[in-house]
Amino acid sequence: MSCPMRSALEDIGQDGSHLGNEAGMLYGEYLMLDKLLSAQRMLSAESSKTVHDEHLFIVTHQAYELWFKQIIFEVDSVRSMLNVEGLDEGHTMEILKRMNRVVLILKLLVDQVMILETMTPLDFMDFRQYLRPASGFQSLQFRLLENKLGLKQALRVKYNQNYQTVFGDDPEAMEALKKSEEEPALLALIERWLERTPGLNTHGFNFWGKFQAVVDKVLAEDIEEAMREPHEEVRRHRLQDIENRREIYRSIFDPAVHDALRSRGERRLSHKALQAPNSAYGYGQSYHQMAIQSRDNGPASTLSDRYKVFLDLFNLSTFLLPRSLIPPLDDGMKRDLNLTWGEPVKENERNSQNGLENSNL
Fold this sequence. Notes:
It contains 16 helices and no strands. By secondary structure, it is mainly α. It folds into two domains: about 45-195, Methane Monooxygenase Hydroxylase, Chain G, domain 1, CATH 1.20.58; about 200-280 and about 310-335, Helix Hairpins (Orthogonal Bundle). Keywords: Dioxygenase, Heme, Iron, Metal-binding, Oxidoreductase, Tryptophan catabolism. Homotetramer. Dimer of dimers.
């Protein structure tokens, strides 16, 4: 593997003969490797018996913290781009790139666990006593990341409700946590951005009016087919399944049902914001792509859905329809969603699209 710092000039010597004072910083100086590589303090080595696996444990967790720092750097930059009035839609590709970078880092962190698993529980117990009361729950950056993404305090599990107390003796940490709780989280900023999606209003294109009509038609056809089932028990089961599906769709058609689910913590986004990624799902929009990138971010948890910051985006596929049934876009919507890729649409054709000239991006 070639060195990432290798010069593009093939004739530069590798023996240092061309690196005088005028060459600037060297690799180790730029990366401050003297500090980085001397930061692995093995507590077991300070006792009578050095435990070999403690070094792996330290390096692994330091790598996690370095990657957390990069994730926060990327998330903060995305929040900054989104936290403006009248977002320039030209920035969405850069936002997508940075969000995708975060997703890949998170996947890398998951894979990193396999390296740590080469250390057995008994190997860990050989040096565990030196670490007390230290715990991964005390990671300040992880808590900051949770807040910056949008994890609500009420959704934290009981033993984690007062997560700030462990940092009580560190005023800088407490101030950073307070700031992360007060600033607009990524979830809130994406919600605001999604609410601006064209075509959600009842006037103009009215995607959801069309979508609901298709759903009603599909369910009615399914009922007719179920009623032709000769076996009563099978027929009853199929009809109940159709009613269950109707209730699922009702939760996105009826704002009151959606708000009730949101009050119980079963939904995260506003009703209008949730409609946006659903409407764009079938059109391959950057709206959908950004939603998916956001979905793949956030603290993963085996506890429950409560720690999924972008829970609504995880569940998008619940409301999918066959591609052939998705309402086709008209020219006005294509322009508003940047689908025409520069293809001209006559102005009088645009103005004829049920008042779409008043739609608000």
